[in-house]
Amino acid sequence: MATKGEAGAYPSAARISDSPCYLQYSASLKCLEEFGSDKSKCQDHFDVYKECKKKEREARLERNKTRSLFS
To answer: Environment class of residue 49 by beta-carbon count within 10 Å: exposed (0-12), middle (13-18) or buried (19+)?
Structure first.
């Protein structure tokens, strides 16, 4: 286990704030804060965020195809 001064076990793992989808994520949270328990009013924000994450994942998978564990 890493101590406070060391990098974590996954130093390259992205934080949500580093994600290209951070703006969509923030908009979804802001909507939830504004409308509270009425999540239906935020569905458009959720859909945009979900689509962004899908594209982000597809791009990551495509990048990983070109990488080799043995080179």
So the answer is: buried
Q: Is 4 helix (H, G, I), strand (E, B) or coil?
A: coil
Sole residue written with tokens 């594209």:
55
Q: What is the DSSP string of 10-62?
A: -TTPPPGGGSTTHHHHHHHHHHHHHHTT-GGGGHHHHHHHHHHHHHHHHHHHH
Asked if 42 and 32 touch (Cβ cutoff 8 Å), the reply is yes
Q: What is the pLDDT of residues 17-61, one digit of tens each?
A: 888 999 999 999 999 999 987 899 999 999 999 999 999 999 988
- Torsion 37-40-45-50 (CA) sign: positive
* Two structure tokens written together for 15: 């934080």
